[in-house]
């Protein structure tokens, strides 16, 4: 992928002025209030430990917790064996089209001394279905257009709610220090981490947001040549040539630019300048709007959608340690 977006000098100051829906805050406050009420009526979270895992240095728990509408969401909780609790905890959201996978695929954070919650994505991961009772439009080319006729029934209302509920739920586990819960993700997972940084407020301590999807969605639909954004362009090209605004008015409720303006915790972003899936201007737009003063962006000049890969992880580990959010940092008291 060649460099087709703005030069880096322009990206660093790119801050498009886009208005959130007038009822954006009420929409999300009502959504989460309803989800929490449903969770109280649903079976409580369960954290059974897997007894037949071949792993010897980590305890693995096969989690279920109530998410959207009290529906059960799957996750893995990995806890370093023998570690002194409570631990700083990573809540990890997954990229588009993926789920929590196998627990053996997620060993880095526990190896570094963190508890690690890996959250399944409803309808994407095999362990969490998406039983939305309200049908979407007849044509659905992917998750971006599932429920595109209005925000109330859009797929990302449910997925973002699950993401917030995951961060809220893990704070109650005895292995977790509730004052050191960090949300993270790559691509779609980065967009979810950004949303949670706004919606969960100080219930999380920091956000690690890598090459985020769901940011400046309209520009993504105009520029991206791979990944989910072209689903929107294809939908509009085939079905709604004369009314694109109704589509983008729905997607505005899930756009990271509007969450970024409301974020209340420190954040480490990454952006890759040769990303064909999430154009760098979309990531910089979110970063430049991010409200908390303690923020940093790592730029991968020749990175594709993989961003900085393992090198970014090293940045994350050091960044957290520098803020007292590593395993050797001071424990919270809440």
TrEMBL record:
GO terms for molecular function: carboxylic ester hydrolase activity. The active site is at 187 (nucleophile), 275 (charge relay system), 305 (charge relay system). Gene3D superfamilies: alpha/beta hydrolase. Substrate binds at residue 96. GO terms for biological process: polysaccharide metabolic process. SUPFAM superfamilies: alpha/beta-Hydrolases. InterPro entries: AB_hydrolase_fold, AXE1_dom, CE7. It comes from the Bacteria. Residues 1-321 form the Acetyl xylan esterase domain. Pfam families: AXE1. This is Acetylxylan esterase.
